[in-house]
Amino acid sequence: xxxxxxxxxxxxxxxxxxxxxxxxxxxxxxxxxxxxxxxxxxxxxxxxxxxxxxxxxxxxxxxxxxxxxxxxxxxxxxxxxxxxxxxxxxxxxxxxxxxxxxxxxxxxxxxxxxxxxxxxxxxxxxxxxxxxxxxxxxxxxxxxxxxxxxxxxxxxxxxxxxxxxxxxxxxxxxxxxxxxxxxxxxxxxxxxxxxxxxxxxxxxxxxxxxxxxxxxxxxxxxxxxxxxxxxxxxxxxxxxxxxxxxxxxxxxxxxxxxxxxxxxxxxxxxxxxxxxxxxxxxxxxxxx
Length: 288
Description:
Elements: H1 2-29, E1 38-41, E2 48-51, E3 60-66, E4 79-81, E5 91-94, E6 101-110, E7 123-127, E8 140-145, E9 151-153, E10 158-165, E11 172-178, E12 186-187, E13 189-193, E14 199-205, E15 211-221, E16 233-238, H2 254-287
Parallel strand pairs: 9-16
Antiparallel strand pairs: 1-2, 2-5, 3-4, 3-6, 6-7, 8-10, 10-14, 11-12, 11-15, 13-14, 15-16
């Protein structure tokens, strides 16, 4: 009985070792994921070039695209682009794309045993309806939140928001933001495309320190034109937010004036109510 039990233990151990060996070898056989996928408008209607570095072990590729952001969990729901790119291919033309849209792209490398790599980074670019062969006009960008002169709280993450546009035809590729007069630049996060060949964006300012900052932005288009930063905005980071000064009545709009009148009426009602209560209290004291 003891001998049979020992055989079972040895058999179980061998089974585990073989299983682990197969799993490890399968993982080793899986091709590496692409990490530098890039998208460039091709200057042809409805077409873009994808470029990447061919990973070790790649034999072919699975290419997906969609008019919206997607990730590993929704990869298989995106459109599949039919192609026969070989392992040596490091660029490919995607065609039949709808114009005036921002398209997102991702790939998986496939080895000779049909093992798929993990999803690549997701690349995106805007496909304009009309493209000028010679785009020499720089794009533009701006900060929409916070406002110039605003005060924000120290050590609390603040989401900066902005917009971008391009009139040259190639559309905005990226927007960067600087907090130190342009010495250091940080890429912002694109959000939604707009009707000006650009997109809205945001940037999370993590734990801002006390001080006064000059925020500027610059946009780059797909033709390589870089915006000369504008005046930007100035922001103060303080321990408490400053109460903005009240706008003079002479500068108020009709809606602002109506809101101000309503506010004053409510204050008058509150004062009258307090006065009536005080008078009633004094009358009661006299009667006693």
